[in-house]
């Protein structure tokens, strides 16, 4: 499990009392939590949150971009999606990777235990960390 001791502020997107945050993400919720229903533009300034948790019902490239914008330097993006198996709707691992690859590094993927395979509601939990572009840029700085 990733270390979440430094998380103080969390934005949850697309959750409600009817659709609560999955238990696997509760340890990543900061002391100060804000909730919004979804949408392509988040009504917050840049670099405001330590973590963003997105519901699979509002997950899209636009919400991932907005999450990147509102996350602080090494912030966490977390979401849970149904895994596509056969004709069942959901996401493949390639689709998940393509969704987050430009701004995040996937650090952990959690799948249900073996006894859940074949049952309905098979979901994958994704823990991704915002890429530190300054660190990447400095790594490839030409030597003089």
Please give the radius of gyration in angstroms.
Answer: 16 Å
Q: How much of the polypeptide forms β-strand, as a percent range?
A: 25-35%
Described by the principal axes of the CA atoms, the overall outline is globular
Strands of the largest sheet, in order across it? Answer: 2-1-3-4-6-5
Provide a count of the helices.
4
**Class by helix and strand content?**
alpha/beta
CATH top level class name: Alpha Beta
- The termini sit apart by 41 Å
Question: CATH fold name, please?
Answer: Rossmann fold
The number of domains is 1
State the total count of DSSP E strands.
Answer: 6
Q: What series of H and E elements makes up the topology?
A: EHEEHEHEEH
Q: Which parts are unreliable, with pLDDT below 50 for 5 consecutive residues or more?
A: 136-144
Mean pLDDT: 83
CATH superfamily: Vaccinia Virus protein VP39
Which features would summarize this protein structure in a list?
144 residues; alpha/beta; Rossmann fold; 6-stranded mixed β-sheet; 30% strand
Provide a compact summary of the structure.
By secondary structure, the chain is an alpha/beta fold.
Give a written overview of the molecule.
This protein has 144 residues and is α/β, with parallel strands linked by helices. It contains 4 helices and 6 strands. The protein has one domain (9-139): Vaccinia Virus protein VP39 (Rossmann fold), CATH 3.40.50.150. 20% of the residues lie in helices and 30% in strands. The model is unreliable at 136-144 (pLDDT under 50).
């Amino acid at each position: 499990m990733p270390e979440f001791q430094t998380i103080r502020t969390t934005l949850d997107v697309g959750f409600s009392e009817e659709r609560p945050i999955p238990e696997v993400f509760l340890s990543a919720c900061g002391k100060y939590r804000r909730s919004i229903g979804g949408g392509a533009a988040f009504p917050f300034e840049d670099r405001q949150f330590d973590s963003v948790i997105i519901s699979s019902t509002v997950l899209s490239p636009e919400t991932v971009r907005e999450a990147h914008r509102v996350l602080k330097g090494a912030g966490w993006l977390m979401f849970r999606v149904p895994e596509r198996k056969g004709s069942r709707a959901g996401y493949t691992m390639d689709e998940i990777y393509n969704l987050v690859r430009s701004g995040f590094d996937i650090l952990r993927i959690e799948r249900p235990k073996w006894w859940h395979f074949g049952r309905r509601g098979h979901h994958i939990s994704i823990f991704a960390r915002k890429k530190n572009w300054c660190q990447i840029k400095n790594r490839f700085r030409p030597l003089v």
